[in-house]
Design goal:
single chain; five-stranded mixed β-sheet; 14 helices; binds histidyl-adenosine monophosphate
Length: 411
């Protein structure tokens, strides 16, 4: 009989067969960040709604339509975190991390929540691995972060990767640029598709995403933000590019790369996997030099990224093999209690050991040992004797129970 209940829309269960792949992603990230001197941070799953409204930006899709927001019993407006950067900026300020040597380099892994229309690779609860380096405006930070994400995705063998890189400059040059783009679009109004025409004022940058041929022809001639960077931003961008070139990280320049968060300044980047279809972005981020100030702190430059764990797993394809057991302890009826004591000793010695918990007969237990891929079975006979069986060769011999733990641990 099927259960009356199902997982909420846009969510999923991680079943035992899926766990190994997730563990691998986390383990790989932990090792990478440890070598690079990034320390782990954890923030709560929910925050004051205002943090995201101010941090992510009130006009973004995330804040306007995608947040899981509710009032708690004390009448406070609470939101399940849609992303991790604003919470970490909050934590940086709340714990006075400005007084630490800068930049403060942090990484995280956890669940995030967005009320989006579910589709392949897009969920309402999903997991991110992310990194933030707060307190330095050096282009070395941007380049190092991009190189770390590149390394993570390559170590995890994400195929067909493409890195897109752009710069958004500063909010001032960006608003001047938008004005220029609006004027350009108005000049070409007759050649634009209606949808783009209707949104010239509201969101001129959307025109770059249009599929319509006529609009695309116009946009191929349009100025991009990269053409309008002020000298400081242009130098910074040139330095980031030089560092990536020197490191042999290839990228495509994308003057129209806009990300769905308002806090970005200067560098923005996204890694796409061509094999993923519509939701092809496996990870992305950028610099956010104004965010800490917007949250009430002193001017503090920062940069970071986040990668989607589910997207990484989808791109990798396949699943991780479960690791086989080292030892299965099979026991005749009278020996079951001794069997539990023995697996406990084996586990203390560092072996992956299991015992039958289902009341199987000896034959059934040997079958189970086989299914689990155990390398050895210890068989406790009715009369108190013990046998050690090599499950691969089928070789079996009498052993002394007192020494079996040491012998197996050494093998
Ligand atoms: P984001 O681009 O919104 O950036 O999300 C980062 C990654 O999370 C995406 O590239 C994607 O792989 C994954 N992702 C986002 N939404 C979903 C979803 N609904 N379902 C599955 N995966 C998803 C941020 O969140 C920024 N906080 C990144 C950042 C850190 N920028 C600076 N520092």
């Amino acid at each position: 009989m099927s259960s009356r209940f199902q997982v909420p829309k846009g969510t999923f269960d991680v079943l035992p067969g899926d766990a190994a792949g997730r563990d691998l992603v986390k383990r790989t990230a932990r090792e990478l960040f440890d070598r690079a001197g990034y320390a782990r941070i954890e923030t709560p799953t929910f925050e004051d709604t205002e943090l995201f409204a101010r941090g992510v930006g009130a006009s973004t899709d995330i804040v306007r339509k995608e947040m899981f927001t509710f009032e708690d019993q004390g009448g406070r407006s609470i939101t399940l975190r849609p992303e991790g950067t604003a919470p970490i900026a909050r934590a940086y300020l709340e714990h006075g991390m400005q007084t630490l040597p800068q930049p403060v380099k942090l990484w995280y892994s956890g669940s995030f929540f967005r009320h989006e229309r579910p589709q392949a690779g897009r969920f309402r609860q999903f997991n991110q691995i992310g990194a933030e380096a707060i307190g330095s405006d050096s282009p070395l930070v941007d380049a190092e972060l991009i190189m770390l994400l590149d390394e993570l995705l390559r170590t995890l063998e994400v195929p067909a990767l493409r890195l897109k890189l752009g710069s958004l400059g500063s909010p001032d040059t960006r608003s001047e640029y938008r004005e220029e783009l609006r004027a350009f679009l108005r000049q070409h109004e007759g050649e634009l598709v209606k949808d783009v025409r209707d949104r010239i004022d509201e969101n001129p940058l959307r025109a770059f995403d249009a599929k319509d041929e006529g609009t695309r022809a116009v946009m191929a001639q349009a100025p991009t933000m990269l053409d309008r960077l002020d000298p400081g931003d242009a130098d910074h961008f040139a330095a980031v590019r030089r560092l990536l070139d020197q490191a042999g990280v290839s990228y495509e320049l994308d003057g129209t790369l806009v990300r769905g968060l308002d806090y970005y300044t200067r560098s923005v980047f996204a890694f796409e996997c061509e094999e993923l279809g519509a939701q092809s972005e496996v990870g992305g981020g950028g610099r956010y030099d104004r965010l800490i100030e917007q949250l009430g702190g002193p001017p503090t430059p920062a940069a970071g990224w986040a990668a989607g764990v589910e997207r990484i797993l989808m791109a990798r394809g396949g699943s991780e093999e479960a690791r086989p057991r080292d030892v299965f302890v099979a026991a005749a009826e009278a020996q079951r209690e001794r069997a539990l004591a023995l697996v406990t000793d084996l586990r203390r010695a560092g072996l992956r050991a299991e015992v039958d918990l289902a009341g199987r007969g000896l034959k059934g237990q040997m079958k189970q040992a086989d299914r689990l891929g155990a390398a050895h079975a210890v068989i406790l006979d009715e009369d108190g004797g013990a046998q050690l069986r090599d499950m691969r060769s089928g070789e079996q011999r009498e052993i002394d129970l007192a020494s079996v733990v040491g012998e197996l641990a050494a093998s």
